[in-house]
Description:
The chain is of the alpha+beta class. It has three helices and five strands, in the order βααββββα. Strands 1-5-4-3-2 form a five-stranded antiparallel sheet, with helices on one face. Strand 2 and strand 3 form a beta hairpin. Residues 1-10 and 140-148 have low confidence and may be disordered.
Amino acid sequence: xxxxxxxxxxxxxxxxxxxxxxxxxxxxxxxxxxxxxxxxxxxxxxxxxxxxxxxxxxxxxxxxxxxxxxxxxxxxxxxxxxxxxxxxxxxxxxxxxxxxxxxxxxxxxxxxxxxxxxxxxxxxxxxxxxxxxxxxxxxxxxxxxxxxxxxxx
Length: 153
């Protein structure tokens, strides 16, 4: 018997097609270390997508179009619902340039697993998420997809 793991139907990419170049004034203050900011941004995205944090928590840390996409993909959560927090299975960060940091993670939320990737750049003295990619579920809960795969095998 072969069990196939379900695949995500698509990848959602949010952000400008090509981030605009920005001139940094000489002597402009450098934002703090980007690695903690990148990990915090990944954790916040995972919590919003899991429903444990409201999408408006991303204000000031993400560009408006990214906040809108997160709000569109956040699940509706009834008040008082107890949800398991997402668990980061693996994560990474890299600095392609001195003024950018890219980070990614594999996140487990209940029975679902998602891939997340984001890019942060300094904007007004703080690291701001300027691009986000995430795997998008095909609409069916993971448990239902696994049950269907077992029945088909």
